[in-house]
Amino acid sequence: MDDNLELIEKEMLDDISSFLEHVEPERSSLIPVLQKIQAKYSYLSSDAIKLIGKRLDLTSSEVYGVATFYNQFRFNPPGKHRIKVCMGTACHVKGGDIILENFERKLNIKTGETTRDREFSIDKVACIGCCALAPAVVVDEKIHGYVAPSKVEGIMLGFEIEKEMNERKERSSTENSDGEIIERQ
Amino acid sequence: MSGNNEDIKNAFSEIKKNAEKNFNESRNSDIPAIYIGMATCGRAAGAEEAERAILETLDERNVKADVIHVGCIGHCYAEPVVIVDNPGFPPIFYYNVTAGKSKLIVKAFLERGDPLYEHLLGAMEENELIPSVMGFPRFGMEKRIVMEKCGHIDPEDINEYIKKGGYASLAFALSKTQADIIDEIRISGLRGRGGAGFPAWKKMEAVYGSDSKEKYIICNADEGDPGAYMDRTIIESNPHQLLEGMMVAAFAAGASKGIIYVRHEYPLAVKIIKKAIDDSNRMKLLGENILNSGFSFHIDIFEGSGAFVCGEETALIESVEGKRGMPRTRPPYPVERGLKNKPTVINNVKTLSTIPAIVNKGGKWFSGIGTKSSPGTAIFSIVGNVVHAGLVEIPMGVTIRTLIYDICGGIPGGKAFKALQIGGPSGGCLPESALDTPIDFDSLTEAGAMMGSGGMVVMDEDSCMVDVAKYFLEFTKNESCGKCTFCRIGTGHLLTILERITNGEGREGDVELLERLAGDIKRGSLCGLGKTAPNPVLTTIRYFRHEYEAHIHSKRCPSLKCRPLTAFYIDLGKCARGCDACVGSCPVDCIFTTKGRKKGIDQEVCVKCGECVTACPEEYNAVIKVSPPHLVPHIEKLEESK
User: Fold this and answer.
1) Residues of chain A with C-beta less than 8 angstroms from the C-beta of B319
2) Which 8-state DSSP code applies to residue B309?
3) Would you call A180 exposed, middle or buried from its count of C-beta atoms within 10 A (0-12, 13-18, 19+)?
4) Which residue among A69, A92, A93 places its CB closest to the CB of B325?
């Protein structure tokens, strides 16, 4: 298991290094570079930050300084299924915090965390602009509107059923999720 | 710099001819056309399912029709929206089109010619057969300039935009001088739609007048206000109008490079604007020597990484330069030293999208709309407890009461109006007594709120104003960039005090402390974020002081909203013997059976989510919410129940 993770990590860093070679070594490239790496790997590892700093002639702390300033970037790997609960005004008025609490209770993790099996992670997000459908939740890029505690149960049940069906179908194959989630849009 | 006016005219008419030809070839006017609103909110409401059902049914029944994606028409309460243009009928607007309704539209309307009166909202034009939507105040009382084409055209089809009059203002502008265009915008009286209301022409003139060789124009689409989404809708529904406005503004200011700064949280908007830029480049409406006029202009996209403060123009520039988005001291203003220290015009999406109409119809025409000091229209995203939520474009000067009650249908469920939150975290909450305030830049500021980017959240009697103030402070505290001490630490303190009030731990003198701290933050902050961050607190104290006092003195939340101060119980007089409706709905299994096979709530376990209230059948209505929590009567838990 650990060997496997190390291997994945190494592949990722090799890929990032070769990507960085094509980047203009100037400061204004920094945010687009962070965005591209995060878009591909969903998070910025500390080694990745070092590589970026080297290429753009910045210290790691300078890169962190920028990356942590913005809400978009995360520094630990997210779950396979990402649950983002909207915390916009309209969602708040209609009880977005209750929805968030329900996910936290259901998955037994707090906001910003990932479940032990790396299946789910929960994040708060700023307004996603679907205020007329409040409260809204984004699960794997699909937006759910008018969410209620019972709908939370429904969403989670959907995953359980999907998982069970996949297991039943092909015990060996794992084709379903990995790449697909991030690339969908 | 202008080239030969004849050349420009000829170049544009050549492009227009081609666009019309390509557009006509892509559509077949003999068969019905089905337009589906496919902007982000439409998709969230189920437009994709509706489309799938339509395509399947068309295929299954062997009916021929064009299915066309359009943007958002702004009527979010009606999503998913489908407009069907069936030859022989006027175009018809269908609302809340589920998969089932989609099938029905194909089977009944397209096959048998029955327009399904029970499912339509109205016809999109006057006719003898079906009442027009214009009789419906939500349509008829609006005045659309910026959003005129939103929801009516395919945002990804440049040919359609050009055929319907697009890019004409660019061709016209290029045949005039820069001074002519700036003058036209000055006559129009257009004020920046980003919130502050700075006259648009002044920025252009300042940059035009500078002798720097490099000049920039930036479109600010970093729409960070929670509750505002009109910029996204405009980009997703009519991106070319924005590009056209930006090109005219760039020409007037003498800028050769433009950047559109759009939030990464809007993936569809990013995709659509990128395609629009590619298409314009391909049609040679962007790039070198546009329409043989000698004017060259390029546009790039910059995706914002999610920081509210980057909506502030100097913070936005810092961010584009690859730094933390911290505001700079002004002056120098961006028109003197902006991006890379070069003169830069920064305008909001709505401001730029208004420019084509002004150039086409004249500044005088525009200045005749709205009020004298704030001409034109305002776009609001009006959401929350309101019947016809969505995007509304109205002439400035309409009162808040007209907007909420006449245009948007009032408050649902017969509840009473309590407050209107306007302008997002920088704005304020206006009470019922302010409903007759006309909507324009100056009147709103006077009332203690501000236009902001145009987010409006309507709150009914169930909303707690202390909770709302706390919500906004939480937001600004997190988004404070940290440069100024008063904003960084002060907002945190405001939040701590508000948290203790809503938790039932408020102390005497807390309201006065909030007021003093708020004043200090306003005075001690550099940028708009800090200067306006205390507004939600100040306006709620100004208009709803009694709510703060109820929280502090009697530990009671009058609106039954603050969860630590409320509790649920089941009224045994109303609860039905043997009914189990609430039990399954409870996410924490805290409902037990008590004497007489009736139900009780375990107060220790209850998380106060309110699901049991929804689950309890209307005829019983037995779940009661109270504040403070000690009002809950004791209900005995029977031994054998779980």
Assistant:
1) 31
2) G
3) exposed
4) A69
DSSP element (H, E) containing B392:
strand B390-395
What is the C-alpha to C-alpha distance for residues B12 and A180, in angstroms, rounded to an integer? 43
Question: Would you call B66 helix, strand, or coil by DSSP?
Answer: strand
The shortest C-alpha distance from A164 to chain B (Å) reads 23
Mean of the pLDDT values across residues B163-181?
95
**A81-171 fold:** Glutaredoxin (3.40.30)
The number of C-alpha atoms within 13 Å of B62 and in the hemisphere containing its C-beta is: 0
Distance from CA of B68 to the nearest CA of A (A): 20
Nearest to A93 among B232, B325, B384 (CB): B384
Domain residue limits, chain A: 3-69, 81-171
Q: What is the pTM of this model?
A: 0.90
The CATH number of the structural domain formed by B566-641 is 3.30.70.20
Taking the C-alpha atoms of residue B317 and residue B334, their distance in angstroms, rounded to an integer, is 9
Fold of the B377-460 domain: Ubiquitin-like (UB roll) (3.10.20)
The architecture that CATH gives domain B465-553 is Up-down Bundle (1.20)
Q: Calculate how close chain A gets to B349, using CA atoms only, in Å.
A: 16
Quote the Cα angle for B385-B386-B390, to 5°: 115
Closest residue, chain B, to A90 (C-alpha)? B384
ipTM over 0.90: no
Instruction: List the domain boundaries for chain B.
Output: 31-135, 158-367, 377-460, 465-553, 566-641
**Range 34-73 of A in CB contact (< 8 A) with B:** 34-35, 65-66, 69-73
- CATH class for the region spanning A3-69: mainly alpha
- For domain B158-367, say whether CATH 3.40.50.11540 is its number: yes
Q: Smallest Cβ distance to A102: which of B226, B302, B587?
A: B587
pLDDT tens digit sequence for B569-613: 999 999 999 899 999 889 899 999 998 899 999 999 999 999 999
